[in-house]
Design brief:
Largest sheet: 2 strands, antiparallel
Distance between the termini: 37 Å
Strand order of the largest sheet: 1-2
Structural class: mainly alpha
Helix content: 55-70%
Order of helices and strands: EEHHH
Number of helices: 3
Amino acid sequence: MFIKFLGIELDSIRTLKEHFKILIKKININLMVIRALSPYVYQKAMIVFYYLFFYPHLVYGVEFWGHATDRSLQEINLTKEKASR
């Protein structure tokens, strides 16, 4: 059973698997936007776009991440590292 609480998908055992699936999809879409913009803007603007499109998704609901599995957190970290390059 899943409960959506303030945009965070919680299941009965609080693993956040479903939330991380949705989060990774959102982050990957924003990553494509950032990559599409990269040839046309300066590096300072890219940093602004990172904090505009990417960062809010990472910090929202971070309080719940203590119940996440290591594998889920590794997937988020890999996606985050792709964006920071």
